[in-house]
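As a next step, we paired sequence with structure tokens, yielding the entry below.
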Amino acid sequence: MPTVVNIWGKTHNELNMAKIKVKNLLLRTYIGFNPEELVNKQDVIINFEIDTEISKKAMAADEPVDILDYKTITKRVIKLVQEGRFKLLEVLTQKILDLIMEDEKVKWARVEVDKPHALRFAKSVSMSMEASR
């Protein structure tokens, strides 16, 4: 008899849960509202985690069918960050989270954006946000 697992209030016996982590994505963007920040790109370090379901059928076939495409999501994050201008770290973090949550296969996501050297005596300042469905 197959094991039945309760996930987010739903009973699933044909799914595996997976956590995808993208770590230390180093990008450059316009971030901040001080005069020099408005004209010079700065480094940001992005980490995100995604919870998703993977069908046992996809696992058995070892084929990328009906699974979350983390490469595509990462490329979209890169485009958003590199082409955007953001005054607030909060806004950048929320926009990345919103972009990730656009994919219906995402059940939960957490985004953390670090702004290195934002404070004189700190290695970085970071903002974290999460969402679920």
Q: What stands out?
A: The chain has one domain: 15-132. Residues 1-11 have pLDDT under 50 and may be disordered. The beta strands are 5-7, 10-12, 15-31, 42-55, 85-86, 106-116, 124-132. The first strand starts at residue 5 and ends at 7.
